[in-house]
Amino acid sequence: MDTLDVMKIVVLAGGIGGARFLRGLRSAAPEAEITVIGNTGDDISLFGLRVCPDLDTVMYTLGGGVNEDQGWGRADETFTVKEELAAYGVGPSWFGLGDRDFATHIVRTQMLAAGYKLSAVTEALCDRWRPGVRLIPMTDDQVETHVVVEDEQGRRAIHFQEWWVRLRASVPALSIAAVGAEDAKPAPGVLAAIEAADVVLFPPSNPVVSIGTILAVPGIRDAVATRTVVGVSPIIGGAPVSGMADACLTAIGTETSARAVAELYGLGLLDGWLVDEADAAVRVEGIEVRSRPLLMTDEAATADIARAALDLAVELKRAEESR
Ligand SMILES: C[C@H](OP(=O)(O)O)C(=O)O
């Protein structure tokens, strides 16, 4: 198998970083069949609507509709509905939904209310966006990431989005839990896609609340462990490439380093690990570590990173097969 051959690739993805990596992967391997298993732990109900930030970020980014500067939400967005809600005193005001984005959540909520599963709704939304990959939510069941914090209002669990977006992770998380994950079932097609995959890639998504949450759905981790898996480090030189993943890693007692994240995923799951040149000295027992520039500065640089991940995965798979 050559990376240029048609191959089946599964990617576990969160939001912005995952979506940008996927855009690079799609251009690095245009013939590949790419299945994306999307995190739904960040999902939240707002104004009576079901909002799936990570699924939408992947869909908008690959479908050409994303706000490129922000990395999420729609391009050419307006905020009339948000302003009108605020005029009624209806919140929360801290979650920035634009008018175009609202339409997606209205369609999704309407279909869910009619009895369609989230996986079917996502497929229907993708009919419009044609992302060039098959996007499946990790589960059709409700899983919500909650964060335990303690401040002047006392100790309490809040929705991940409230901690992340409203509080900007400024209050330390005492713990993070994917509520509902242990009883959730993988969405239809998730396990079959993993079982059929030539390789599985972990993009530089948040290892705790994105990839960690997907792996927490029973059955997914075990299925992934049977494949050749290569991850791209979301940590460069001791800091997240973007975002505040360090706040999540600290909450679970893991150091913010490329080595610690590889160890968190663990031997038995990860076969190869791409780190930045800044982390060239990183070694992880039992995992093949390679270094190269990992900043996704533009689409061409991102495609090079995706190609390097794929090449490493193919090399490791071949080595495994010849043993
Ligand atoms: C929460 C978010 O996760 P991602 O969508 O990047 O996986 C982040 O770490 O910025």
Automatic annotation (TrEMBL):
Group of enzyme by EC: transferase
Assigned EC number: 2.7.8.28
Pfam short name (any one): CofD
Keyword Magnesium on entry: yes
Gene Ontology molecular function, alphabetical: LPPG:FO 2-phospho-L-lactate transferase activity; magnesium ion binding
UniProt superkingdom: Bacteria
This protein's record includes keyword Repressor: no
InterPro entries: CofD, CofD-like_dom_sf, FbiA/CofD
Key words, A-Z: Magnesium, Transferase
UniProt-listed NCBIfam families: F420_cofD
Protein name: 2-phospho-L-lactate transferase
Originating species: Actinomadura livida
Gene designation: cofD
